[in-house]
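Lesson 9: reading folded outputs for more than one chain in a single document. The general rule is that every protein is listed as its sequence immediately followed by its structure tokens, and records are never interleaved. Here is the first one.
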Amino acid sequence: MEKNGYKPGAITCRTILNGLCKIGQTSMAIRLLRKMEEGNFELGLTAYSTIIDSLCKDRLVTEALNLLSEMMSKGIQPNAVTYNSLIQGLCNFSRWREATTLLNEMEQRKIVPCVRAFSILVDAYCKEGMLIKAKEAFNVMIERGIRPNTIAYNSLIDGYCLQSKMDDAVKTFNTMDERGFSPDVFSYNILINGFCKNKRIDEARSLFDEMSTKGVALDVVTYNTLIGGFCRVERPRAALDLLHKMQACGQLPDPQTYAILLDGLCKNKKIGDAMALFQEMKDKKLDHNIVFYNILIDSMCNAGKLATAREIFSGLFAKGLQPDVRTYTIMIKGFCKEGLIDEASLASLLFGPRFTLIKIWAMVYTDQDLGHVNNIHYVEIPLHLSKFLCKNGQVVEAIKVFHEMEDKSLGNNIVIYSILIDGLCNVGNLTVARELFYSLPAKGLQPNVRTYTIMLKGLCKEGLLEEASEIFEKMDGSGCSPNDRTYNTIIQGLLQHNKTLKAIKYLEIMVDKGFSANATVASMVFDLLSSNQVDKNIQEFLQKLV
């Protein structure tokens, strides 16, 4: 427009800015914002809030917070919409402390948080397994006169289901109904899924039947969940019957339906039924999906029928199907399981005798012509091989594979380092494990929560509790918050070495964050109570846990 002599006005610019954010072009939107500032356009809250929301969706939360500060320094105050975007963005990164701070800040600024802000926080806590915090946020919402909606209830029900607290999930489900919120299809699907995962299939089926009587339309997710549930409790015939009922009711199965049922039949060793279903899919021309073939190949590998697996794999290209990462890793896992770890023989079985694994990794990484191999993710094959070797105590061999990967610039991956550190700790080679762990920042790698937990477990096992505590207490400052496994690992290590006071300190923090003690830690706490080795205040705290 400017090249043709037209100067866009404020309304035009705001419209373009909004459109750029909607299509994910946030950086262009920011450049337009700066031009508008230079052109002395009057910029209101909407323009800044739109970009803040877009930055949060792009997972650039720090940049969004910086823009908030810049906006406020210009005298533009945020509203509930602005805060909701930031709370959602922070929760996506497990930065719930900052999200809670923003929620409190809203109240201080006389901005009434809406149900959406609390729902976001409840959902984030639930997904992190922090049920106590989730319930607290839910209760605060009610105390402030904000009526929870169906989404908030569904989040809490899902949180209970994820922690296998099905009685609490049912209680919340019933409370929702009593307070005038009719459970929707999502509410039912969440609860049915919880029952299925806990192998309480009859209760899941009862809810399934209740949906029809209460006029809640069943969707494909409902059917898929219950079909998967029947397979999980070794009732594949009931799963097949449900598929037929689904079709009779006019609900079309989707690829996920067939994948769940095919996988369930294979895992229940109903290979004949699985092949009959697969034939039905072929007759309906529904088989042209690599996921289905992956399931069949995996079932053959698990049954030790490598020749059949290889035959199915080889036939993919004639069908016009491209093997994906999972296809290759299933094959490699199958051969590793049988002890066929010699890289030359493994490579020739999969790709022909002219390739070795290292050559394949290097060629895939540099995108050289490998025909059908070209789409495989370059770290997936060595990752599986390293994992297999470490699990079988062959850490020296795993390190050889790792060094070859480094030579080909394939080793810069935190997952592979975590596997190696774990393997080294398991065989008692803590010195090398520590060297690898402490070398990560120099390699431009940030340990994730799994890496930290592995290292803490190794240090505790060797009685190096001071070092373990030091690493643990630096986690938050490194941008990696401990999860329930991390807390349980360090607490268990401290209790095993009679460091009771520090263990209790971490236990209190863990509970305050909404995490629960695992079975091992709970048992150790019970033993501690029985021994009368702690003072009265600590005893009272521990008694609340068991």
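And here is the second record, again sequence then tokens.
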Amino acid sequence: MGSYIDESEFVILEDDITVRKFIGQKIDEQLERLLADLLSFSSVLFSHWLVLCSGSEWRLFNGVFLMGPLDLFLKSEVLNPHTAIAGCNMDAGTSGSKEGMRSPKRACKHEDNCRGREGHKYAATNRYPSPTDITSRDWDNTDAFFVADLGDLVEQHLRWERALPRVKPFYAVKCNSSKTVLQILAEMGMGFDCASKNEIALIRDIGVPAERIIYANPCKESSHIKYAASCGVQIMTFDNEDELSKVAMNHPTAKLILRIATDDSTSFCHLSEKFGASISECNHLMECVKALNLDIIGVSFHVGSGCTDSKIFARAIEDARTVFDIGIHLGFRMDVLDIGGGFPQAGNDSLTFEEVTAVINPALDIYFPEENGVKIIAEPGCYYVASTFTLAVNIIARKIIRKAQSHSNGEEAENDKIIYYINDGLYGSFDIFCQFHNLLKPILYKEDSLDQKLYTTRVWGPTCDSFDHISDLWKLPELKIGDWLLFKNTGAYTLSTLTTFNGFHGPTTHYVISKKAW
């Protein structure tokens, strides 16, 4: 597996905003400010330690050394603040015993320096855990968990700016509403696409000004429109006449964007079945806007999640130009184009982000040339967060079904099937993969399993519902209870759709960042 790196090769960001840096290391000032701001939110965002390691193949999270991009997780479990290491006994009545380590209700004898579950420090020895400390522990926690590489989030944003320099992203909060993710995106200057009162409140609570929010839900609850008005959120979408009446009553100063339907037949999610006005309806809707003394400032569209045909973007941009001209003819100042979402995410083999942007940029130059002064925005979600998160799940039970089949020579041979039960499922992180089976590809953690015989498998989630069925498609070796499966590209519509059905809570998330991104 490789050797452990020396302690001097990593940086620890503590929850009290102390930063130990490499001697002589030159850190980009913008990223330094970004992370310093993040640390100021540490009581909410970083309840554990965030550690930056040298080398792109190394990570250290919550005090645990992990080796290689897929070894992200499992050499040891996460450093629990109620685990006694380096002389700090979390239980005042024990000396680092297991009973003491697992008694969170009993007071730590270093009460002045330790903070319980929110940022435990090694007060007794005033040092950080060494690799020897970490690997000597007996870790037995098998709960499912995410590891989020914040450096990947930053890199996705830089990639966006290179590929779509004219388009300002308004991140779709519904995709992944982790406060850590939102705060990083906010610090990088992004806008936010909110669809409800609670999403608006979430973004306002982290200090994002109202002008960086678009209320991009064409069919809104009246009380939510009123709340948006009270928060100063002006820009919102609509696609029907009744919606205009609600806006006129609850937010008459709103700046409206007309959402149009697109041809999303080649996308996995056909959003135009639910939202979007046809081109033939647009003139009438704009006349209604005028009659109600409201203001319309632009046009939006969404090609559907999981778009597989980049030409759809070009046709939608052309349609938007037609609607723009209708608005200008009616006397509106049309100066915002919202090209929506549907951008390829990591793991999508049918289309790359750069292939899509190679179509979008020329279309924008033709129909919305830069000299016209139109502000171009978009609503990416999966593009930003899918590849940032990796999920680790544990096999909690299994059944081996022995079947006898006859060969043509009359001999019988075993054709076994294995049923696995894992500790996350469709009521947890796997809900979205009911629609996107092609994006769900398990990675085996066990090294010695790579050359083993593969079996037909059926994989179930942990609940008692038969709907909680994850896959019949994977060929896997014979794995044991306690083994791990890893799933990359699981940052989109996983944390945000978790339920507590049957009393199962979703995976915890641990945040890491590479030296390169730091």
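What the second record shows: The radius of gyration is 26 Å.
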